[in-house]
Amino acid sequence: MKKRYKVTIKPDEKTVWVLEGTTIYEAIEEAGIIIKSECGGSGVCGSCKVMVLDGQYEDHGSERFISQKELDKNNLLACRAVVKSNLTVDIPITSRLFEQKILTEGVEKEIEVSPWVQKYYVETPKPTLEDQQFDLDRILNTFQIQTNRKVQTNRKVCTDLSQPTQVSLDVLRLLPDALREEDFGVTVVLAGDEIIGLESGNKSEHCYGVAIDIGTTTVVGYLLDLLNGQELGVASRTNPQTSIGDDVVTRINYASTNQDGLEKLHEKIISCLNEIIDELVKEAGIQKSDIYEVTTVGNTTMNHLFLKLNPKYLALNPYVGVLREGLSSRAGELGIAINPHGRVYSMPNIAGFVGGDTVAVILASQIHKSKEIKFAIDIGTNGELVMGNRERLIACSTAAGPAFEGARITYGMRASNGAIEKVVIDKDDVEINTIGTSKPIGICGTALIDSIAELLKAGIIDKNGRMKKADELPDNTPSFIRKRVINHEHHRSSFVLVTGTMSRSGKDILLTQKDVRETQLAKGAIAAGYKILKDTLGIDDKDIKEVLLAGAFGNYIRREQAKRIGLLPDISTRRIKFIGNAAGSGAKMALISRKLRQEALEISNNTEYIELAVSKDFHKTFAEAMYFPEADTTH
Ligand code: FES
Asked: Is there an atom of ligand 1 within 6 Å of 79 CB?
């Protein structure tokens, strides 16, 4: 009868009992742990390296991939070693296969972690008089033997790692010392098929990347471990370019009409990214030099300003940008303070006003693979809209303006401490909710939508957007509402949301007639874009399976209220879903998966762009979309 042995697997501390003759690889599989394997345990890929900490085993062939020095320390290939006693084995992080969850479409999506930048530890034989290979040949030959990536295996053709074919002069200059400092053990950093770094000794367990969503208003960065895709931190800043202008057109004009305008805008965003990276590194307690790649997404203007590409012609008919494709640049070239040999990948754009952020939203929400028609909307200073399915996908951009971010609204402010974020008119009072602990200071976008929706329901604002005067209100208007309708600004009406006794400034906080007009412009632009996309596809509201709300603002909108003012289509609220910061999710996906990065390029190639300015119906559609819906459309 065969003997049974206990195998303990670290660092998981899992234990399995196996029969004599079982390989360590099989024991690990039995424990439910996923170990890297390109060859399915045939001993020909070299991926399944482990270290036996305690116990007996018999090794049949690890020497093909593992040096004598490492074998002496009980390192071996799990699939080549047979268990001969109770045994404890450690799986290093570099031999693990991780799947990372990324928030997309309100659900977590499993993504195989296979980043563009990867690190490999290579132990080369020492040179001798009989072996006088040059240093680079020595590394490349050993690398090929150790990784052996292009073999046909019993599972698949392993193509996920390119053989190194390029190496730059500055990296070559590091090679002789890096190789000899730790006894001919060196960590090779690969970006695609290019060696971008060499580090002496085994540094393969420290490899990080940062994904950054460069919004017109807000910049958000995520630190990820490139070995397992795990998110280690998030940091954000207001885009410092807002001090020059709150919308893209103002910034393009500034860059085009000032001699150092482009330089200034570029420097602002670079220093913002560096601040974010500093914060992420500090919080996570890692070295900045271990960050090897940054991926960025942004609208086409943000992308141009980030890369210091002249954005002038984006704002001039026929609105043509410099670069649509994704671009991999050296971090040093852009002044991004990560490892000096690191890379910065900016995601591809679709058109002059639909950029990499929209590509990222599509990637994260997977509309391009959907059988059903979906509509994704990212409401920001520019509203980016995407509609379609795997057959056809179209996108447009609407100049919604910054009203929903609180700008150009009389008492508008960003969603921060002291901002009224919710307004409800109930049967005997106006209820508000304020962010943080401060007394109310102003209103942010969600409260703007709420208050207009509530005043439409109360009959104080009509479908044209006109706010009635106190003496025009119906007789049955409750007195607590009537007394809040006041004359303001050349006798035009305003509604008192918060009285001076309750506000921080001691003055009333008002919703003015002008605010209603600004909101009509913003929601009209988005609603017109929606209608033109629908008409282009020849579909109706009922054909749209889901509306996906992306972006920080979209995630706080109260859907019924947004429908009431006509910002969102009149479809069942159940079919309107929040998908979080999908642009950020897309940037993360492109950072940890080369396959998804390729998919992003295909999205950029295949998504049709509609230029609303030349759509013959746009002005008429826009004018109609500025009206508020008459009936309560809440479902
Ligand atoms: S799984 Fe391929 S060598 Fe072990």
From this structure: yes
Work out how many domains the chain is built from and give that number.
5
Q: 532 and 396 in one domain?
A: yes
Domain stop point among 64, 95, 126: 95
Among all chains, which residue has been given the structure tokens 């009431």? 564
Residue 101 has what pLDDT? Answer: 41
pLDDT score at 209 = 98
What pLDDT does 158 receive? 32
Question: For residues 516 and 408, is the Cβ–Cβ distance under 8 A?
Answer: no
Residue numbers of the chain with a pLDDT score lower than 50:
100-108, 149-161, 633-635
Taking alpha carbons only, the member of 396, 308, 395 closest to residue 346 is 308
Distance CA(361)–CA(268), nearest Å, equals 25
| 3-state secondary structure at position 252 | helix
Question: Does a cis peptide bond (omega within 30 degrees of 0) precede residue 318?
Answer: yes
* Nearest atom (ligand 1) to Cα of 65: 3
Within 128-275, strands assigned E span: 166-167, 185-191, 194-200, 208-214, 218-225, 231-238
The pTM of the full predicted model, rounded to 2 decimals, is 0.79
Of 78, 95, 112, the residue at which a domain comes to its end is 95
Pocket test for ligand 1, best of 37, 150, 158 (most atoms within 8 A of CB): 37
Question: Pick from 88, 61, 98, 93: which is nearest to 76 by CA?
Answer: 61
CA–CA separation, 150 vs 144, rounded Å? 9
pLDDT at 388: 97
Nearest to 446, CA basis, from 399, 417, 414: 414
CATH number at residue 64: 3.10.20.30
Helix (H, G, I), strand (E, B) or coil at 212: strand
Q: Indicate if ligand 1 lies below 6 Å from the C-beta of 554.
A: no
Residue 150 domain boundaries: 99-200
Q: Point out the ligand 1 atom lying closest to the alpha carbon of residue 38.
A: 2
The predicted pLDDT at position 35 comes to: 78
Terminal CA-to-CA distance of the chain, rounded, Å? 70
Q: How far apart are CA 272 and CA 337, in angstroms?
A: 11
Q: What is d(CA 302, CA 217) in angstroms, rounded to the nearest whole number? A: 10
Report the C-alpha gap between 502 and 499 in whole angstroms.
6
Which residue from 23, 47, 66, 89 has its CB within 8 A of the most atoms of ligand 1, so it is best to mutate? 47
Of 26, 39, 75, 146, best ligand 1 pocket probe by most atoms within 8 Å of the beta carbon? 39
pLDDT of residue 153: 27
Residue 625, SS3 per DSSP: helix
State the distance from the centre of ligand 1 to the C-alpha of 82, rounded, in angstroms: 13
In terms of domains, do 567 and 419 share one? no
Q: For position 489, what pLDDT does the model report?
A: 67
Ligand 1 pocket member 24 (CB < 6 A) = no
Whether the CB of 77 sits within 6 Å of ligand 1: yes
